[in-house]
Structure formats: structure tokens, C-alpha cells
Inverse folding.
């Protein structure tokens, strides 16, 4: 809906969906803040560098090692979640963490044992499940053995945490991998569907135009042979050519109109995908009952649903959207009512925009009506169409 203002576009900041990289600066900021919470275990090694009893060389080496560890960790875990590395890169970066954590903890003391928490997270989130099930206990064992030498109490306190958070991250990693695979599968299905639609269109156009074009070609050859000796018969052939070509044009227009006409069931499926991808909780009806609903009326409702959900995704800033499809009895007869309501915080413009105006015209052409505006807790659009053709409604009355 083009009349919606820019403040509806701003909306409420939400993190990127699982398995997706940040799509804008706001999502990047939210994700960075979320990452920062998990850096709390770095307080011990940083405090040890500042206040610990270390030589200048040890402080410099520790600072460089900690910087390298954090950089590799962030690169491996949070970059790999959005755009996965190749397996060789994952193993290489994981191996670097597996070397830095024990070396730093062994040389600088028990305050550095917290690095094994990050090592466990990294291995759990990025390694294949079979490898992670071996690597996480191994990291906990190495951490405990090092702790026996430097700080046994700290090692005991971290042992269970390293195991639990590592195995928990295997679930997160598996969820991310599954989401990425589903996203690729969805793109493949969409591509296959588009290819199938192109093939169907090609078959239909061949069936529609093959006979007509063959007949036009044949009659053109006949008209050419009849000229100039039999002009009357040639004129008849030209008239037949005109009639055939006009009928072919009508058939093509009807076919193209049918392809362009959206279906309500297909739009509902697309709405589910669009709202989920945008992080909006969707409350949608089951398979619609379109008995006695004319094709033109169904198409108008489908356009209204598409326009309303586009507004929710792009402009509303909502996190919930409810779609209702109900049959009602009115003074003008039975109608099918589509309601789309969100809890967005934005407002509409001073008047209806081109989107609403176009929808109103489309619905009125199908014998329906449109209502749209702010409600107490968001924005609602209601579209109604008759459940029978105009002639049937009139005779019924």
C-alpha cells in the first residue's frame, strides 16, 4: 500500500532469521549486541593481563594470542552461521582455536580456562555431529587436566559448563544447517515450479496457435494462387484469414488472463512463507472453501491478500498478523470476507494511496467492497466479494 508512511517502514528491530546473515545495519547491530553478551567469559583473561603477575613479554604475547583467538572464534561461529565456510576452512579455523586455548591456558594460568567455553561453542556449532561428539568431551578433558596444574577449582566449575554448552550448540548448529538446506530446497522448488509453468505455457500456446497459424498459412497460399485470376475467391480467403487471426488473438488473451489471475489458495501459501521469512507470527486459515465463488471474485480477494501482506512485511513494523476468511450473510446476499489485521505501530497517510484505490476498483468490478484503516491495536484491511455471480444473486433476491 503505497500510501503508508515511512514511519511504518521503520518498524521494530528484529534479529535476522536463523540461518540468515544480517540484511541491514539494524540487524547487524542487534546481532553484534547479542554476540557481546557471550563475551563475558573474556573478563577473566583480560583482568589477568591487566592485573596479573606477568612479564611484559608475556602480556604482549597474551594480548596477541587473545586477539587472535577472539577474531578466529567470531569469524568461525557467527560468520559461518549466516554463510557457511567450506569444510576445510571450518576444520582449519577450529584447529587454530584448539591450539590457542590450551597454549594460552597452560602458559598464563587458570584465569584463561574460560577460553575452553568458546572452544566448545565453536566446535559444537560448526563441526559435523559425529566429530563434535568427540571433540567436545576432548576439550573438556584437556581443560580439566590443565586446570589440575593451575586452578583445579576453576576447572571443576567450568567442566560441566563446557560439556553442556558444547552439546547445546550442536543442536543450534544442526538447526542452522537444516534451515539453510530448507532455504536451498525452497529455491529449487520455486525454480522447478517456474520451469514447469513455462513448459505448460509453451504447450498451451502451441495448442492454441498451432492450428490457427497453420490455417492462416494455408489460406494465404490459396489466396496468392487465386490472384489475379479469381479475385472474388481470393477476397474470401483473406476474409477467412482475418476471422481466424481474430479468434486466435481472443484465445491468446484469454490464456494470458488466466495465467495472470492469482488463486487464493496459492496466495495463502505464499503469505505463510513471506510472513515467516520476515519474522512475523502468522495466524492463517485452513484451505479456503471457494464453493460458488466466481473466478473474478476469487482473483480480487487474492490480490487484496497479496497487497495487505506486502504492507505488513514492508511497512507495518508488526510482529503478528492474523488472516481470516469467513462467509457472511448481508442485505445484499452471501459474501466471502477476507480480513487481514496486524499489530503494527505505524500509521497510514492522509488518504488512500494507489494500492488501496486499485484494490477498491478491482473489488468493485467483481461486485465487492473494501474497508481499510487503523484499529485499536494495529491496522486492518477487510475485503468482501459475493459468493455467486451477479446474475445469480439478482435472481435469488
Amino acid at each position: 500500500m503505497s500510501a503508508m508512511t515511512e514511519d511504518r517502514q521503520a518498524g521494530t528491530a528484529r534479529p535476522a532469521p536463523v540461518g540468515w546473515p544480517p540484511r541491514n545495519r539494524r540487524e547487524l547491530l542487534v546481532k553484534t549486541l547479542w554476540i557481546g553478551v557471550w563475551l563475558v567469559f573474556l573478563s577473566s583473561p583480560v583482568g589477568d593481563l591487566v592485573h596479573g603477575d606477568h612479564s611484559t613479554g608475556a602480556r604482549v604475547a597474551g594480548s596477541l594470542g587473545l586477539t587472535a583467538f577472539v577474531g578466529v572464534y567470531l569469524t568461525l561461529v557467527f560468520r559461518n552461521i549466516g554463510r557457511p565456510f567450506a569444510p576445510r576452512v571450518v576444520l582449519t579455523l577450529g584447529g587454530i582455536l584448539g591450539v590457542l586455548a590450551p597454549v594460552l591456558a597452560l602458559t598464563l594460568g587458570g584465569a584463561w580456562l574460560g577460553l575452553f567455553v568458546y572452544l566448545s561453542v565453536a566446535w559444537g556449532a560448526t563441526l559435523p555431529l559425529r566429530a563434535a561428539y568427540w571433540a567436545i568431551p576432548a576439550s573438556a578433558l584437556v581443560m580439566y587436566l590443565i586446570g589440575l596444574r593451575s586452578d583445579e577449582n576453576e576447572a571443576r566449575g567450568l567442566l560441566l559448563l563446557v560439556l553442556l554448552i558444547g552439546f547445546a550448540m550442536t543442536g543450534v548448529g544442526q538447526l542452522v544447517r537444516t534451515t539453510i538446506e530448507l532455504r536451498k530446497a525452497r529455491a529449487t522448488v520455486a525454480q522447478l515450479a517456474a520451469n514447469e509453468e513455462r513448459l505448460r505455457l509453451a504447450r498451451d500456446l502451441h495448442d492454441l496457435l498451432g492450428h490457427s497459424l497453420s490455417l492462416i498459412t494455408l489460406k494465404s497460399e490459396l489466396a496468392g494462387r487465386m490472384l489475379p485470376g479469381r479475385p472474388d475467391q481470393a477476397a474470401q480467403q483473406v476474409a477467412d484469414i482475418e476471422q481466424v487471426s481474430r479468434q486466435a488473438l481472443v484465445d491468446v488473451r484469454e490464456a494470458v488472463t488466466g495465467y495472470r489471475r492469482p488463486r487464493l489458495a496459492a496466495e495463502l501459501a505464499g503469505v505463510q512463507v513471506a510472513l515467516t521469512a520476515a519474522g512475523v507470527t502468522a495466524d492463517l486459515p485452513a484451505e479456503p472453501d471457494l464453493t460458488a465463488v466466481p473466478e473474478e471474485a476469487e482473483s480480487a480477494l487474492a490480490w487484496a491478500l497479496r497487497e495487505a501482506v506486502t504492507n505488513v512485511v514492508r511497512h507495518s513494523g508488526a510482529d503478528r498478523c492474523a488472516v481470516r476468511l469467513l462467509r457472511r450473510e448481508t442485505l445484499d446476499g452471501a459474501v466471502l470476507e477476507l480480513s487481514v489485521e496486524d499489530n503494527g505501530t505505524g500509521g497510514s497517510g492522509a488518504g488512500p494511496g494507489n494500492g488501496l484505490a486499485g484494490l477498491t476498483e478491482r473489488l468493485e468490478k467483481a461486485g465487492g467492497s473494501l474497508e481499510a484503516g487503523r484499529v485499536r491495536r494495529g491496522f486492518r484491511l477487510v475485503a468482501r466479494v459475493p459468493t455467486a455471480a451477479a446474475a445469480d444473486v439478482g435472481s435469488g433476491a
Observations:
- Residues 19 and 183 are 9 Å apart (CA to CA).
